[in-house]
Amino acid sequence: MKTIYTIVAVTAALTLNSCGSSLAPVRKDAIKPITVTQKTAHDTDDPAIWINPTDAAKSIIIGTDKETDGGLFAFDLQGKILKKSISLQRPNNVDIAYGLIINGKKVDVAVTTERENNKIRVFSLPDLEPIDNGGIPVFEGETMRDPMGIALYTRPSDKKIFAVVGRKNGPSGSYLWQYELTDAGNGNVGGKVVRKFGNYSGKKEIEAIAVDNELGTIIYCDEQFGIRKYKANPDENDNAELALFGQNDFKSDHEGIAIYKKENGKGYILVSNQQANTFMVYPREGVNGNPNSYPLLSEIPTSTIECDGADVTSVNLGGAFQNGLFVAMSNGRTFHYYSWNSIQQLIDAAKK
């Protein structure tokens, strides 16, 4: 059943608490969602978009339900729940990659952090079945583990897939660990640590992580401090920070990150300004020939309340999403789908 809400209805319905603070109302000029999904059981947190390779209109959204006895939910483009995964112990963030080689075959995967078990979990797509033999332990040997954020990097040269994992707390310089996903035999996925990196301010936590495969970069939010950028390829042995931006643009927490990709490395980076119920937009390619310069281009007010996570695609999914779909988590156990056109209009207006 397709559910379409006006901004008034969304504002009235979404009143639950989030991990953020100082709940702000939805702005009157907020863009309206095309669809609001059916509700999950507990607490939505982060979405990822899987593009159906044979029919983009049949693409699905994978979203986390963040609680003990939570799980991953698969939604169609009308917001209907198609399936829930096996129960997981507080799944936090999720990301998707294509073509992981398992038993000689290419398998699309969704990978999520399972916070209470200190593991990452791997599911095949689109059937959302576990293929990890109970999970891959992360941050082994560390006092603070609690995995939260995750993003997947597919290296263009050999198509190997790596998981970049963040946690609730950790030391600056090695806060993030990067794992190569491997064929563990018997149809299961394993993982091995290949890198430890990432500066941390100590202010709050690092949860939102995004990878730009084409540009070979990792971008993550050091909450209440700024947005940091690093190289994605672990074999380059380069852990130098490339950029730190967005330090003065946010009301409080820097949250979910989504990268809208245009041709030739152009596009936009959208970051949730959680307590303001807006998204801050930066140029994916940088400005004036400097790929590490990120001035604020626009602030997009949305219908979401205290958004933790988001994803976006520029692929034509048909209908209202011919120039792409932007999906964001909201309080009220839902995800909101927006036509990219509504976002692009506001970005263009800010340039005038």
TrEMBL record:
Residues 1-24 form the signal peptide. InterPro entries: 6-blade_b-propeller_TolB-like, B-propeller_Phytase. Residues 21-347 form the BPP domain. PROSITE patterns: BP_PHYTASE (PS51662). Keywords: Signal. It comes from the Bacteria. Pfam families: Phytase. This is Phytase. It comes from Flavobacterium flavipallidum.
